[in-house]
Amino acid sequence: MVAITDDTAAERAELPVMARWATAIRRNPTIAAGAVLLAVLVSLAILAPWLTVDPLKQATINRLRPPSERFWFGTDQFGRDIFARTLHGARVSLIVGLTVAAISGVIGLALGIVCGYFRRIDGIVMRIMDGIMAIPSILLAIALITLTRPGLAVVIIAIVIPEVPRVVRVVRSVVLSIRGQPYIDSAIAGGTRGFKLLARHVLPNTLAPLIVQATYICAAGMLIEAALSFLGAGVPPEIPSWGNIIAQGRNFFQIAPWTILIPGVFLALTVLAVNLMGDGLRDRLDPRLARRM
Amino acid sequence: MSDQPSLEVRDLVKHFPIHGGLLQRQTGAVQAVDGVSFAIRRGETLGLVGESGCGKSTVGKTVLKLLEPTSGQILIGGADVTHLSPRAMWPHRRRIQTVFQDPYSSLNPRLTAGTIVGEPLENFDIARGAEKEERAAALFQRVGLRREAMTRFTHEFSGGQRQRLGIAKALSVNPDVIVADEPVSALDVSVQAQVLNLLIDLQDEYRLAYLFISHDLAVMRHISHRIAVMYLGRIVELADKRALFSTPLHPYTEALLAAAPIPDPVRKRRGRVILKGDVPSPARPPSGCRFHTRCPYALPACRQDDPPLIEVAPGHHVACLRRPAGGDPVPLS
What we know:
Chain B: Belongs to the ABC transporter superfamily. Chain B: Its main location: membrane. The structure holds two protein chains of two kinds. Chain A is mainly α. Chain A has helices at 2-14, 17-27, 29-51, 82-117, 119-133, 137-147, 152-179, 182-189, 194-230, 242-249, 258-285, 287-292. Chain A has one domain: MetI-like fold (Orthogonal Bundle), CATH 1.10.3720. Chain A is flat, with a radius of gyration of 23 Å. By secondary structure, chain B is α/β, with parallel strands linked by helices. In chain B, the strands form two sheets. Chain B has an eight-stranded mixed beta sheet, sandwiched between helices. Chain B is built from nine helices and twelve strands. Helices cover 27% and strands 23% of the residues of chain B. Chain B starts with 6 loop residues before the first strand and ends in a 15-residue tail after the last strand. The A-B interface holds A 1-2, 5, 181-183, 185-193, 196, 200-201, 204-205 and B 61, 64, 66, 86-87, 90, 93-94, 96-98, 100-102, 105-111, 119-120, 123-124, 146, 149, 152, 156-158, 166, 169-170, 172-173.
């Protein structure tokens, strides 16, 4: 048996890099599609200042121009270039999505492990989480933003708060099932305790479901940010975001549909890319589903 | 110290509360272990045998303090660890180690074999870094694994190899007692023999005390010095291996021995004793002798009187009303 594993490991290492990538893509077409789409969107967002003109530069003479060679995506009612605004808006969406996923992932992971492992705290923390989950996230965000100065950080915090309980629930349930595994008893009997027990034996096994959950939260975060900006409760209007581009374009929707269609399509594509990755990772990381593929 | 038993258990009780009703009040208890006593000396193997659900694994886990005992006493090398907190229990874990039943789920799939075996060494600050590697490698060789195997993950090993890993891990801290909970029941028969012989060799070498839990009488016969038979959370008979196999005194032991296949076509089967019915629920054990509902020789008194475990011959303990101390045994048939 040992000999057999030697052979396959050696074969795997000898495969050329390109062939290994091809195999990976063939096995996980969903993840690959999502990753490629997301990579394109991220590079557009990063390169936005070099690819486009100033998204805030107004030119009344060019107002509501349809897509053309000069204005690829047309212009809005102030003559601002929608291509520039959309690409700059991608930065807001991606920053919000990724930060929300990262922050709620870290907080949720910590709380989830604590709840799953220290059963005395569990009841209290989970009731608080249930309470937070009962608050509609958009209302909470609007309330928070009216209380403070609008800004990217407030938007992120407002979205993180209602997302944390979702992560806590997932992590907690995984920790509960890991606790029952004999290898945890075995580690305890071997003298492993405290932080090391959590970090070495519990934590690594919670990461797969956490990553999947984080992708969904990333997508949800971008949608909520767009909704908030659309409602005027999101990032300040001087920062272009897909939500406020659509909001500003909606009065001219019938004569200049590109002002809302283009940022709308970008929003949909980004959410689709992230969700594709999430679905693919879920299938890939869940051994029961992976075997069927 | 030397004549102190390595592991002693006195009147150990482990009840699992059952919660029910609207307010989740305790409505009962599963009496998994209900008054179990035994002692194991250095270099000795006590076999704990019984059918599924009789509480033998619970005894093992409670002794290891992976479960909190309800009452009774657990002494490891004379030190009372019964109600120690996890923190206070920790230093004692060096003296009592365990080999688990399932070699697949008892090893963390995300760690390499070397990390798993070396972990107790670093936990107890016995060795670190290169010295830890060296000691882990020596343990690998001692249990019959190549040292190159240290960098592999557990799924790359066969069942028998994994069980060797578990043994290496248990040995790493140089314990006095090893609780082996069905260590070979998940293995092929040929591999079973190898692992059992390894355990026997290690016992001779390090004078280890084993609490060996199994339902397999052939395995018990091979490895145990003394055997305790459990039924519904109680020890019903405790005797030297030879005495138990040649002259079982408890009707349950007799039935258990009769049910085991004899791998010898010349030898005649013992008289078959087939028990009727199922094991009663440990949440509602029968009154009197717990075995009376299935005992072919039950007397009317067995319904009321709970027989204590008494020594009827030197080293031979039995809990049966038909086997009173000193008095003439009431014949079994």
